[in-house]
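To illustrate the input format used throughout this study, we show a single complete record. The first block contains the structure-token representation of the backbone; no residue identities are included at this stage. The design step must infer an amino acid for every position from geometry alone.
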């Protein structure tokens, strides 16, 4: 579980650590027969180099 203000990094790019600014839920726009549409959780993260990037929650790990 992550919260706004937590320090996180993308699991494929561990050198870019940042702080969560916002958490948003975005609905899936694909409705398949027999399945359900699931919302995805996205994090708006300000990296230490000043860039602001959007990351999926599943791709983020908490920094110690």
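Output of the design step:
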């Amino acid at each position: 579980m992550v919260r706004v203000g937590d320090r996180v990094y993308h699991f494929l790019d561990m050198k870019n650590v940042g702080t969560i600014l916002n958490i948003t839920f975005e609905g899936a726009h694909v409705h398949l027969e027999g399945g359900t549409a699931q919302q995805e959780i996205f994090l708006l993260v300000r990296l230490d180099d000043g860039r602001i990037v959007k990351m999926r929650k599943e791709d983020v790990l908490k920094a110690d």
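Structural context for interpreting the output: The radius of gyration is 13 Å. The first strand starts at residue 7 and ends at 10.
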